[in-house]
Amino acid sequence: MSGHSKVYFIEQSGSHADMAERLVEFIKSVDCPWLGDGEIGVKVHWGERGNETYIPSDYAKGVVKLIAEKGGAPFLFDTTALYRGDRHTAVGALAVAEDHGYGYSTTGAPLIIGDGPTGADIAEIPTPQGAIHFDTVKVAGLVERVGGIVTLSHFKGHLAAGFGAAIKNISMGIASRATKQRMHADVSPVLDADKCTVCGICARVCPEDAITIDGLPDFDLELCIGCAECISMCPSGALKIQWGSQGTVFSEKLVETAAAVCSRLDGRMLHIVVAANITAECDCFGVPMEKICPDIGCLVSLDPVAVDLAACDLFNATIPLPSSGISQNDADKICAIHPNVNWRRQFDYAQILGMGRMGYELIRV
């Protein structure tokens, strides 16, 4: 895929409410006639309970209002999480969403769980030609029924992918639990015994009870589903990822799933990335986290590959906060926070599968 995609950039200025207003005012000029065609899903992520740096609902509220003004019927959605936590069930996820400001009374739109109340509302769709891991993927059934989807993604770090934004929001965020597990299948924990304090948190958060505490933690890798929850929640940093194969496989599986969704919704997706409240790890962490750089702004594109790459480039060009541990001289700041992850593989592979272009024109709004 050759050429350049347009990525529109609204530089951070003012509050989240101010930014949301500017974002929506700009999107009015974007050529997306399908926004007025039937039910339009807005893919959001309201963070795990205990997390404080998820993007606030101001942006979702603004996008919902815009879709309604164009004649569409907007709704917000996410899918249940693979790991143990409040978002592991539909009921628990909706409760967290309400507490985090994503309820109907705040946003003006219904909120649903995309894979249904029991995780059974799914559709199996093919991956693009050239995919090397999956022939088909199972995703939220609404993909087959909506008029289009707006992805509202938070740019931040991610321990297995390096970063998360639109591609991950489409992929892990819309995948069924079975496909989430297939994507995580190559991830397992390895323990640094010298750092372990035997606090037992890893065993408590494991969704498959694959960890027992008898002295040091013992991991049953036959039961492990690779969700990495134990790694993400370890307070002493004693657990790291032990890749079952090359470290690029997780990113490739992310891309294949996202590419399948984008292909199914060909021409009926708009991608918004909010590069603010940026932390080293994902909003799935149910703990407060420190921001690692100043807020950057919002990016908009019809191309999920270009918008993610532009967000990464802007992040790598920013001045990190002193508490982040990142050197201002680090040209690759994503690698600085996740040195063992080849985060650029997402882009190479996504372009190969025809999901979008790495070449982009950044247009400041």
Q: What is the CATH first-level class name of the largest domain?
A: Alpha Beta
**How many strands in all?**
16
Output the helix-strand order.
EHEHEHHEEEEEEHHEHEEHEHEEHHHE
Categorize the overall geometry.
globular
Count the domains. 2
Second-tier CATH architecture of the largest domain? 3-Layer(aba) Sandwich
Question: Helical content, roughly?
Answer: 25-40%
Question: Quaternary arrangement of the chains shown?
Answer: single chain
How would you classify the helix and strand content by structural class? alpha/beta
CATH superfamily of the largest domain: LarA, N-terminal domain
Largest sheet entry: 8 strands, mixed
What gap, in angstroms, lies between the N and C termini? 26 Å
The CATH topology of the largest domain is Rossmann fold
Question: Count of DSSP helices?
Answer: 12
Note the beta-strand portion.
15-25%
Uncertain spans: none
Strand order of the largest sheet: 4-3-2-7-14-15-1-16
Query: Rg, please?
Result: 19 Å
